[in-house]
Amino acid sequence: MHLKPFVLTAFMALATNGFAQTITTTNPLLVHSNAPIQFDNVNANVIQNAVSSVIAASDARVKAIIAVPKNGQTVSNTLMAADELQYNISDLSIKLGLISSTYADDKTRNAANDQNEVLSLYATNLYLNEGLYKALKQYAGSADAKQLHPNQEKFLRETILTFEKNGMKLDAKGRKELEAINKKLIDLGTQFDKNIAESKDSIEFSADDLKGIPANTIAPWKRANGKYMVYVNGPNYTALVYNSPNEATRRSMYQHYNNRAYPQNIKVLDSLFYYRNVLALKLGFKSFAEYALVDKMAATPANVWKFENDLVAKLTPHVTEQLNELKQLKKQLNPELSDTFNYWDLLYYQKQLLDTKYQLNTDEVKQYFEMNNTIKGMFSVYEKLFNIGIKEVTNVPKWYSKVKTYEMFKDGKKIGSFYLDLYPRPNKYTHFACFPINQYRIADGKEVLPVSALICNFPEGNANEPSLLNHSDVITMFHEFGHLVHSMLGRSDIAAQGPFNVKGDFTEAPSQFLENWCWEYESLKMLARNYKTGAQLPESLFNKMKKAQNVSSAIFSIRQVYLGTLDLTYEDKYENNKDQSIVQVDKNLFTSMMQMPYPEGSHFICSFGHLNGYAANYYGYLWSKVFAQDMFSVFQKNGVMDTKTGVKYRKEILEKASTIEEMDMLRNFLGREPNSEAFLKSLGIQ
């Protein structure tokens, strides 16, 4: 049941020297208020109207900023006007991102994709607007700008850098050529993501093929002819490669899952890498990675290569040791099979190792992580840790019937709203992510509170069994909810300095940091209860989990290094590798780093979504983890559920959003310079 549709009016005004641009709208995508967004009223026409309206209003805002005379520029009519310009564009863009990733209706979803391309190109080309750049540059040299608050000065400095990084130093002809390149890149990125989301595949198996898979799992797959039709998605992939003793079954699922969006995304990626390199060279950079890292903590490709190569040197001996243990187990359990250890063997034999050497039955562990109870318990952990409150709300419009809605509170005051969209379905985003929907903004004393959503693909329950999570799923849930809490708590009087605007190689730290609570009994017992009996997770079972925490950890860590190196190779070594196919580049890195044969016939890169959204930034997962583990070390000292420490973290890290430099946040919380000791210890390689 939905609330009845109602009409709100949004006044998006930009007051400058004698000028005001006001839009009055009933378009649900343009209403900036704290009322629930009318997702049930969104269609292709609404989307097209929203984009054309924002572009028209933005054109007027740009003209107004440029028109202010030199001696009349102020914080209000120049700096905050530039922030409002960005806010209205990005706030609509993130809504379109959600719609294109979640809506079932093809026409609406395609319109969101198409119109977000239009809006993205418009936003990108703003950084080629010479008049706008000169207005901001002129203001930066004014007496008024000398009086800016530190976060205002940071915003102005970073905005000017973005202009200069993105082509403002080119002449008019060069900027025009850059517009064409930007359009190609936006079109290609959209197509890449769309191909992944719309990939559809299924595999027919016999009952013998599926021996070893829990009966409750395979029951929904059975067809009238006695065969089993398995849809290729994340939960089904996990179910088969973890549980099937049949190597052919595991291999089949692996190959199908890692051929999503193949072959179409091979051509798309080829073009993406080519045009990114063209863009970088045109802007005066040696590579796209050099261009992308200018405004990151790492700063240069050389720093990232050193980071990755140091990890390779530290991890490789441990990878060899851990793989040998799994190979020996395979030979022991299946002497009739080849000695070759393939990637589709990894999760299955790791599970067998846990069962045998560590007496840890992962199927037993799952009984303690039923979805609803896990979410409720996770909320309790976050509430105690950060002194916040969370409550479920109903009768809120949403984009799909199974989506759940919530509100978050601090000191008794509502600070934001969020949605949980937890299970896979056709045409939906296929991974796990936190999607911002509304950005926080305060103007004229009025707040627009943040709204976000977790878009996930956890295994859904059925008539025989509820949704039960692997412990790794629980870690993923904590990670993504860490992003969401960051999005709820971050505050700035400049909308562009929101939580998701921290540097790209720090953005994962606040979420990775919270994964640690999945490995502490004091917190885990708050959410782990047997779904049949209600019994709390026994400490004896937890101790087995803890003892096995670093099983195969070097293998999984080297995979992160491999992915970061693959991304960086494509974006920093394009000229060196352009005569090789992008698949061959992947093969070379996989075999050298993973110490396993490349899975011939698979094309993982076609569905490696980070090659679009995280271009030259995948290294950031491990780079961020250095800081995440360092911050967690404070809780290890003070108590993992110590609210005083949690509130300090909330205030010094989460609430600061991107108003100050990341290293300053870390120093303020840690009371010292950050270091990598806790990170290396967490990898088990110190």
UniProtKB/TrEMBL annotation:
<keyword id="KW-0378">Hydrolase</keyword>
<feature type="domain" description="Peptidase M3A/M3B catalytic">
    <location>
        <begin position="243"/>
        <end position="684"/>
    </location>
</feature>
<dbReference type="InterPro" id="IPR024079">
    <property type="entry name" value="MetalloPept_cat_dom_sf"/>
</dbReference>
<keyword id="KW-0862">Zinc</keyword>
<dbReference type="InterPro" id="IPR001567">
    <property type="entry name" value="Pept_M3A_M3B_dom"/>
</dbReference>
<keyword id="KW-0645">Protease</keyword>
<dbReference type="Pfam" id="PF01432">
    <property type="entry name" value="Peptidase_M3"/>
</dbReference>
<keyword id="KW-0482">Metalloprotease</keyword>
<dbReference type="GO" id="GO:0006518">
    <property type="term" value="P:peptide metabolic process"/>
</dbReference>
<dbReference type="GO" id="GO:0004222">
    <property type="term" value="F:metalloendopeptidase activity"/>
</dbReference>
<protein>
    <submittedName>
        <fullName>Thimet oligopeptidase</fullName>
    </submittedName>
</protein>
<dbReference type="InterPro" id="IPR045090">
    <property type="entry name" value="Pept_M3A_M3B"/>
</dbReference>
<feature type="signal peptide">
    <location>
        <begin position="1"/>
        <end position="20"/>
    </location>
</feature>
<keyword id="KW-0732">Signal</keyword>
<dbReference type="GO" id="GO:0006508">
    <property type="term" value="P:proteolysis"/>
</dbReference>
<dbReference type="InterPro" id="IPR024077">
    <property type="entry name" value="Neurolysin/TOP_dom2"/>
</dbReference>
<comment type="similarity">
    <text>Belongs to the peptidase M3 family.</text>
</comment>
<dbReference type="GO" id="GO:0046872">
    <property type="term" value="F:metal ion binding"/>
</dbReference>
<keyword id="KW-0479">Metal-binding</keyword>
